[in-house]
Write a structure and sequence with these properties.
CATH topology: Rossmann fold
Distance between the termini: 35 Å
Strand content: 15-25%
Number of strands: 7
Radius of gyration: 17 Å
Number of helices: 10
CATH class: Alpha Beta
Largest sheet: 7 strands, mixed
Order of helices and strands: HHEHEHEEHEHHHEHHE
Number of domains: 1
Structural class: alpha/beta
Helix content: 25-40%
Bound molecules: S-adenosylmethionine
Strand order of the largest sheet: 3-2-1-4-5-7-6
CATH architecture: 3-Layer(aba) Sandwich
């Protein structure tokens, strides 16, 4: 599994440095709308690499002055949007394990004068964040990449304040993947092979101690995976790995969902 993590870090490092493009790397609003339907206002175009799979902030009910933690912040797309909503008295912490992503996000924050956003290098399985310190935890298309999802959600529970909220966009499965596809490292980095069945995903969150866990929105991810696969090397790899494994279509395999919940308190 360390090999998988190293591979993921390498792939996303290249994307951060512009050596590898993602589906929306031309940063046009139309591409973002058609290919990666985040639906969020793009407040900082350099932070929009089209790597998300939903709109967690639309479900976070973020208030001015709140503290937000973004798991796997990447170039900071959701962090900058959160910073606008949380205002100058709010605070946003973006966590990512890829140094090139952190460098890119920090440079963007400095260039645009975001004093209320901080990017920290670290793993979402071991968050560099204090206990009971976050009003809201968000994440966008990242937890599928983690092999130990139970550990990630235990960390979410630890860092949330009592009563704090969770809003996560992620890819989950509707049926198990064929073994060969599930074992493809390219499909893992492409946000497919690390995904788990939706019911298992929800149980893992509940078992970590979070309550009111529900799917707030869901869409078939086939379009996201195949349409983006046309130009996104990661998703292309996932799609072609599916083909090599005898899956002529990804139809019905995966969902992009938004999951909400809260820490009791
Ligand atoms: C698909 S991108 C999503 C980036 C961002 N959330 C967005 O929507 O633009 C996944 C990001 O998660 C990071 N990542 C993957 N696994 C991680 C882990 N275990 N701990 C911390 N970051 C991780 C990668 O480095 C990458 O930047």
């Amino acid at each position: 599994m360390d090999d998988t993590k190293a591979y993921i870090r390498q792939v996303y490092g290249k994307i951060a440095d512009g050596q590898q493009t993602s589906c929306c790397s031309n940063n046009t609003a139309s591409a973002a709308a058609s290919c990666c339907p985040t639906g969020e206002q793009v407040v900082v175009t350099e932070a929009d690499l089209g790597l998300g799979c939903g709109m967690p902030l639309q479900f976070a009910a973020l208030q001015e002055g709140e503290t937000v933690v973004d798991l796997g912040a990447g170039p900071g797309f959701d962090c900058f949007n959160a910073a606008e909503q949380a205002g100058p008295d709010g605070r946003v912490l973006g966590i990512d394990m890829t140094p090139e992503m952190i460098d890119r996000a920090r440079n963007t924050a400095a260039e645009h004068g975001y004093g209320n956003v901080e990017f920290r290098l670290g793993e979402i399985e071991h968050l560099p964040v204090a206990d009971n310190s976050a009003d809201v935890v968000i994440s966008n298309c990242v937890i599928n990449l983690a092999s130990d999802k139970a550990q990630v959600f235990r960390e979410v529970f630890r860092v949330l304040k009592p009563g704090g909220r969770l809003a996560i966009a992620d890819i989950v499965l509707q049926q198990p993947l064929p073994r060969e596809l599930a074992q493809s490292i390219e499909a893992w980095a492409g946000c497919l092979a690390g995904a788990v069945l939706v019911d298992d995903y929800l149980s893992t969150i509940r078992n970590a101690g979070l309550c009111d866990v529900r799917v707030a929105s869901q869409h078939d991810a086939t379009e996201l995976l195949t349409q983006c696969g046309g130009s996104d090397p990661l998703l292309q790899a996932a799609v072609s790995a599916a083909g090599e494994c005898g899956e002529s279509s990804l139809e019905g395999l995966a969902l992009s969902i938004i999951v909400c919940g809260r820490k009791p308190g």
